[in-house]
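hi! just following up on the protien thing from before. the input was this:
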Amino acid sequence: MGISSSLILFAVGAVLRFAISVTTSGVDIHTIGVILMIVGAVGFVVSLFYWSSWGGFGNGAGYHRQRRVTPDGAGGYVEEDRGHF
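and the predicted 3d structure came back as:
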């Protein structure tokens, strides 16, 4: 389950729990809302955990590029590019 689907599940659950005031026989809408909110929250936490394990932003994994620009002494510059994983 992705982050966006978890947030959608949580939002639908919150609407069912807090914004709907209809009573039905045999089905408790508020309980379904609470269940959807719990599933959405758990899915969000699990998605964040797996997102950080495979990449995400700024965890130091992946391809890195280093670029060094130094003056050459004659008024120009020497550029050196180096990429590594």
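The radius of gyration is 25 Å.
Residues 3-78 form one domain.
cheers
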